[in-house]
Every structure is written in C-alpha cells, then in structure tokens.
C-alpha cells in the first residue's frame, strides 16, 4: 500500500533520530537528569508572578466579538462621570456594584419596621472599611456620585417622603416624584409588587444597589478589597425582621472559579489515590531500575508535576495571565506522560540498558510527533480565527 510505505518511511526517519537521541541520553544520564531538574526548579520561581483572570465576561467572550468592540468604542467616545453625575442607565459596561435583596419574614416589606431595618442595613454596609495605601477607606469615599451624594439604587425607598406616602397608602407606581430628585423610576427595586390603580399596595422584597466609581484605576483596586470585606460582613449580619441575599459584580466569576477549584481538589485526591495504588501494586523486589515499573511510574508522575509547575512558572515570568480553565491542563499532561510511559520500557528480549533507553525514546516519538501536529493545527486555527 502506498500509504503504508509513506508511513514506514516517515516513521523510520523520525524514529532513527529519536533512537540516536535515546542512546545519547543513556550515555549521559546524570548530566541530563540533574540539568533537567535544575532548570525546572528555576522555572518554578516564575510562580511568584502568577496572575489569574477570573472575570467570566473576559474568559468566555471572544476578544474579537462585536459586543467587545462596541463596548470599547463607546467607552472611548463617552467620558466616565461616575464620580460626579452617575446614572445607572448610562453605564457602558457592567461597572462596579454590590447588591442586597431584602425579604420580609412576615410577608409584606412595605412597613415602617422593615424600612427601619433596611436603614440599619444601609448604615451597616456604609461602615464597611478597608485599608488602602495606609488609609482607612469607606464606601462613601469611592462611591459613584450624583448631586454630591452616593448614588445608591433603591435608596428612594428609605426617604421620609416615600415613608410619608406609604403611611397613607398612596405611593404611586412605578414612578415616584421626589421633591429634590424629581421623578424616580423605582420598579426594578421592588420585587413581586401588588398594584392597585397604579398605587403600590405591598411587596415582599426590595433591593438596594451600591454603585462605585470607575473613573480611576485605583477605585477598581479598592473595590477588589472592599467586595471581600462586604461578603465577610454580610455573612455576619443577622436580623429577626428580614432575610438578606447579597452579591457583587464579580459573584458569577467567583462562583465559576470556586467550582473549578472544587473539581481540582477532587482531581488532586484522585491523583494521590492513583499514586498510592501504583506504589502498592508495583512495589516488588527484583530487576533493575529500568526493568522495574515502580521507579518508572514514579518518574512519570514526578515529570508530570515538574512539567506543570515549570510551564506555568515560565509563562508567569513572561507576564502571561492564566484563566481558571487552565486547571484542565494537568489532565492533558498526565495523559501525555502516561502515553510515553506505557510504551514498554522493559521490553522482553531487549537486555542492554542503552538499547532499552533508545527503543523507548524511539517508540515515544510516535505519540510525541502526533501531539506536536495536533497542537500546531490547533494554534494555527486560533491564529486564523483571531485574524
């Protein structure tokens, strides 16, 4: 067969090169082993610069998508006025925010008791602090601002004017006319309302949205610190009157990250069990190091661990930002390592150490070259897609 002849010629040409390479390695084992370990350990230092990208929109939205292009274009055309004239409907992106949803334990949230509890919650969130560049910072110090006050969505529900009309059962819906703020559309801040002739009768839930400035990079850094404090403090908040649900702009991204890390812990446990099983199953006396599968299996596992750490370390040192999907990489590397180790290193009828080493490298070249071509085609497709 013509195809078979072509395969044999290519296989022989590549295999002979790897066979010679295997002989060369076998003649200088300690030199290459020590050099490999030393280089990998040095590359591990790059992990000190490891950075992870966890934003769901960045990870799962193609960088060439029309939505990304339009968003960047709009952000470049219109100035960011979140520090002076913030309007939620004018945001060109998700922005920075935290939300709390309040549900009355007795059913209706539109009463003085629940509103007073919401005011306590409002004050409680405003008291959350962080330390930035040696200074204590509160929400009011970097909140999005409108009319020289913090722009909190839904705060119209906590005003004396709203409470006054609520007491008379005459709150207009969905627009509330405030003496100083003018008409305020508050429909999105009241959950499952009961309406009678455009008058708000009752509602079991209400929402507050705390918006933050985005006109300077330092506010984003502050928010990253604040949101962790926000989650911590909300976990501690207790009330006999209301139940509170809470989230921030990065909640979905963090949920995805936590799910992946949870899967990774299962993987680590499975990997540890597999390693222990290999040791128990293969640990038997006799035969040399190359003829004994225990040291071979151990070497394969160590090579996998070192290859993962050194590859991530090298790219981290170069400034590459990793996404959480990279957690799948160990599976690919283990598959490659196992595929190389499964070539029968301790082959029957091959007694000489040099021949065994060379034959292993020769046979592993098949899987190695196939993997190279697969990754090459994948990368070429990615390049064409980006262009």
From TrEMBL:
InterPro entries given in the database record: Patched_domain-protein, SSD
GO cellular component, one term: membrane
The keyword Secreted is annotated on this UniProt entry: no
Domain SSD: 263-334
PROSITE patterns in alphabetical order: SSD (PS50156)
Keywords from the UniProt entry: Membrane, Transmembrane, Transmembrane helix
Domain of life: Eukaryota
Ranges annotated as spanning the membrane: 30-50, 260-280, 300-323
Keyword Transmembrane helix: yes
Stated family: Belongs to the patched family.
UniProt protein name: SSD domain-containing protein
Native organism: Potamilus streckersoni
